[in-house]
UniProtKB/TrEMBL annotation:
It comes from the Bacteria. Signal peptide: none annotated. InterPro entries: Cyclase_SnoaL-like, NTF2-like_dom_sf. This is Ester cyclase. Pfam families: SnoaL.
Length: 143
């Protein structure tokens, strides 16, 4: 797939997929060899796993809202700050049951775009703060 969209337009389509709770739309923004990673993952996800990741998060937070707060485009790169809000009323992998608590998590995504779509998204957010908002105890063990 060769895209005629600018990096900013592709980033907006990516953001809209998250807002629409549409994992397939998010994944469709990526090049075949594109990857997504954030602090909750052990490593980068390939394009083929991105829809499942988005859909899993939306299942855990059915009222999930992604709000883009600021965005800067620089050539083939887009940087945007966001706020993710929602209630954990569905199963979140690794937890025994939904916490029924709300979270309000700020973060930043760095997006790199190539001729075939997004080649890489690196997301940053406070994972410890996220789990604490859900009422979960977080122990930090020195490495």
């Amino acid at each position: 797939m060769t895209t005629t969209l600018s990096a900013a337009e592709l980033a907006e389509r990516y953001q809209r997929g998250w807002s629409d709770h549409d994992g397939d739309a998010v994944a469709a923004c990526f090049a075949d060899d594109g990857t997504y990673v954030d602090p909750s993952l052990p490593g980068p996800l390939p394009r083929t796993a991105i829809a499942g990741y988005v859909n899993g998060l939306v299942s855990a937070f059915p009222d999930l809202v992604l709000t883009v707060e600021d965005q800067v485009s620089e050539g083939s790169r887009v940087y945007f700050s966001w706020r993710l809000q929602g209630t954990n009323s569905g199963v979140l992998p690794g937890l025994p049951a939904p916490t029924q608590r709300r979270c309000d998590v700020p973060g930043v995504d760095l997006i790199e775009v190539g001729p075939d779509g997004i080649t890489r998204v690196v997301g940053y957010f406070d994972q410890k703060g996220f789990f604490e908002q859900l009422g979960l105890r977080v122990d930090v063990v020195p490495g």
